[in-house]
Design goal:
The protein has eight helices and seven strands; from the N terminus they run βαβαβαβαβαβααβα. It is α/β, with parallel strands linked by helices. Strands 3-2-1-4-6-5-7 form a seven-stranded mixed sheet, sandwiched between helices. 40% of the residues lie in helices and 16% in strands. α2 links the parallel β2 and β3. α1 runs parallel beside α2 and α7 runs parallel beside α8.
Length: 225
Amino acid sequence: MQVSVVIPALNEAENIAAVVKELPWGLILECIVVDNGSTDATAAEAAAAGAKVAAAVQRGYGRACAAGASAAIGEILVFMDGDGSDVPSEMGLLLAPIIAGECDFVLGSRLRGKREPGSLLFSQIFAGWLAGLLLRLLYRISYTDMGPFRAITREALNRLHMREQTYGWNLEMQMRAAQCKLRIREVPVSYRNRAGGESKVAGSFTGSMRAAVRITQTLLRVASS
């Protein structure tokens, strides 16, 4: 099964080339970096490192992920961040259950894996725990995280009919996957501090609050659908 890696990126010129070069190219067909309206050289750095570059001019994490999925040609889609915090060498942990035909969706859990000190804020850990508790009550499924490092078959993603365009994309995918009764597995993955620059979510109080509000809205919307 052919694998496409999708990396949404906003002003990650400092990090994106290293992320693309670190990918396990022996396992994947292509890497799609989605430039989500960057004002720096993110697109140029990604292309020079060997990625295909797609554009999602209107900002929004979900919009960028959807644009990358549309541009990719692989039967399996791997989503990850472009800041150097995910560990590409662990991609095989996500792919193996899907390639073996055991799963449709595999989520990498940062909370169950090894984390560098300071790589996750307490608010992020708490949000993952709370979301996991609510989804366990709603769908009787155990999630511990809403991390970005995840793999899903294209057929399964199409079944989810994703609508979220901003920070709630990851949560919507997990909820829709449970609703659609996909074969789901969560595996521990390592997590590092971002290589450089500032997080668009955890880097500021405003960003954190905006993400929290959108994730809450997504939870309520999808749960009631």
